[in-house]
Amino acid sequence: MDLRALRCFVAVAEEGHFGRAAVRLHLAQPPLSRRIRDLEADLGCRLFDRIPTGARLTAAGRVLLPEARDLLARAERARERVRAAESVREVVLGAVAGAGLDSCPAALAVLRDTRPGLRLRLHEAPVTDPSGGLRERRADLALTRLPFDTSGLAVRQLGVEPLVAALPADDALAARSRLHVRELAGRPRFRLPAGTDARWRAYWLAADEDTPGPVVASVEECLHAVVWDGVTGILPAGAARRHARPGIAFVPVDGHPPSRVVLARRADASDPLVDAVAAALAEAHASAAPPAGLHAAVPVGRPAPVAGAQASRRA
């Protein structure tokens, strides 16, 4: 049965009059009457007797009235539950090595205004997973970095980020304003585990595959390796802001391609809500100032300070 016809039926039954029911439903009376006739034809019985004062339920109409009210109430409950489910949708954002996180506050401010029921949850992926959780379906969208195998993913580049070498603060190179990646040759490096995406692993090692060093699975483990094992390695420049601590110096690196920050999602997925989050993140990233460059000289026990825009332009 048509829910619109049932609403018309209930209105006429409660008003006892076709005209008053039409006013209540904001309908003209002829369409209201047609819907009642169609409902009677579908059920094969009369629902109203026409009387001088309006309309009176027949025996069949009296049976239908509580059923119709129940059907309409159930339909409204279903509608409300569906709307509530959509209004509290959660989108999981994967994040890899701090990629694009500086743009998240501005994007969240926009999404709170435009999508008030949205919950955006951050999944911080290990540095061994450049897909940010997309491959294992732990994330709907990922802020990550190239290069890695992007088969099956749709990728949108947001920008580039310079690199720094993470060094023990008492290392001779820690006093330099910049260094070339070749100057790190022969030094032990923190390394990613075997089985990690080959392009990703080679990019962050920036050295021969047989270079010695501890195996790490997170940025924190990279930094611990610098302090505890005296090794060095390549990190995004933002690590100097997010992970500054005693005993580590961060020195801008030349001679190695900068990190390409991207938004990634599964190519076979289509979701307007994920589209909205992606658009907000891309707009926020485009509007944000480029990351600052870094001064290098850091005495033992002091974190690397952030430099001004001139160093950023050189980077």
Keywords:
D-Maltodextrin-Binding Protein, domain 2, 11 strands, disordered C terminus, LysR family transcriptional regulator
Question: Could you describe the 3D structure shown?
Answer:
The chain is of the alpha/beta class and 315 residues long. It folds into two domains: 3-87, Arc Repressor Mutant, subunit A (Orthogonal Bundle), CATH 1.10.10.10; 90-314, D-Maltodextrin-Binding Protein, domain 2 (3-Layer(aba) Sandwich), CATH 3.40.190.290. 38% of the residues lie in helices and 20% in strands. It contains ten helices and eleven strands. The protein has helices at residues 3-15, 18-25, 29-43, 59-87, 104-114, 198-205, 219-229, 239-242, 272-287, 309-314, and strands at residues 48-51, 54-57, 90-96, 119-125, 141-146, 153-161, 163-168, 179-180, 233-236, 248-254, 259-266. The strands form three sheets. Strands 4-3-5-11-6 form a five-stranded mixed beta sheet, covered by helices on one side. A four-stranded mixed beta sheet has the order 8-10-7-9. Helix 1 (3-15) packs across helix 3 and helix 1 (3-15) packs across helix 4. The protein is rod-shaped. It starts with a helix and ends with a helix. Mean pLDDT is 86; it is low at 291-315.
